[in-house]
Amino acid sequence: MSAVAENLPAQSPLLEARDLVAGYGAIEVLHGVSLSVLPGSITVLLGSNGAGKTSLMRTLAGLMAPWRGSIRFDGESLDRLAAHERVGRGIALVPEGRMIFPHLTVEETLRVGAYGAWARPHFAESLARAYALFPRLAERRRQSAGALSGGEQQMLAIARALMARPRLILLDEPTLGLAPKMARFVFDLARELRSAGLTLLLAEQDVRMSLAIADQGYVLENGRIVMAGAAGDLAADPRIRTSYLGL
Ligand SMILES: Nc1ncnc2c1ncn2[C@@H]1O[C@H](COP(=O)(O)OP(=O)(O)OP(=O)(O)O)[C@@H](O)[C@H]1O
Ligand SMILES: [Mg+2]
Asked: A Gene Ontology biological process annotation (predicted)?
């Protein structure tokens, strides 16, 4: 390494969570979770059912208040910001289960995504971009969202998040229940969004596919990070191979 490279500061994370503790009622489910996400990367969050992936995503998005710990985004503290204010800073959540309102049309759903004051002026441009990315949604723009297939609803949930013009997308199990072809579409899309400069944090149970597209990963078990590293290293790790890849 050259002296110049050594003197460069390490790339600072876009998102940094420190020692997050959170739970429901009296039950603690995140026991001090720290993670950082580099700009322009895909970070995958692995963990089996009940590990705390959704709780962590919701805490990052501001939908759940942590009991302790802190979250910084682009160098600024998010701790006092409500969920909608975090959307305004550039964080969009694609929730587990998609959370699509069945009675809204496709286009009405996308309009909801662009509701924020910063996103609304760009609505037409964002809509054109969403339809270019998802031609199937363009064909179905006047159809009610509830009549879409599971895969189409997942596209709609992602498109709705993009309408907010985020810098970071939190994707909570986007391929759950999708046919392999549709799951592949979602993983390809994640790569495409990274190429376009977006940053992604992806909770996934498809360990093989998600590690194949990710730059780094974290493994959450019972509310604690038990492993972290470069995606390639995790994919080769014997513990991952036996516990998560069934090898
Ligand atoms: N609304 C809730 N009220 C009480 N406990 C909850 C609630 N939601 C989740 N939990 C508990 O918190 C823990 C973590 O759940 P969480 O949904 O965050 O896990 P997950 O990793 O997303 O799981 P999955 O892969 O099944 O989506 C579990 O023990 C779960 O039972
Ligand atoms: Mg979950």
From this structure: L-amino acid transport
Nearest CA to ligand 1 atom 30: 50
Question: Domains along the chain?
Answer: 35-104+167-243 (3.40.50.300)
Q: For the stretch 43-67, what's the b/e string if a residue is b when 16 or more beta carbons lie within 10 angstroms of its beta carbon?
A: bbbbbeeebbbbbbbbbbbbebebe
CA of 167 relative to ligand 1 center, distance in Å: 26
CA of 244 to the centre of ligand 2 (A): 16
Confidence category of residue 7, pLDDT binned at 50, 70, 90: low
- Which atom in ligand 1 lies closest to the alpha carbon of residue 23? 12
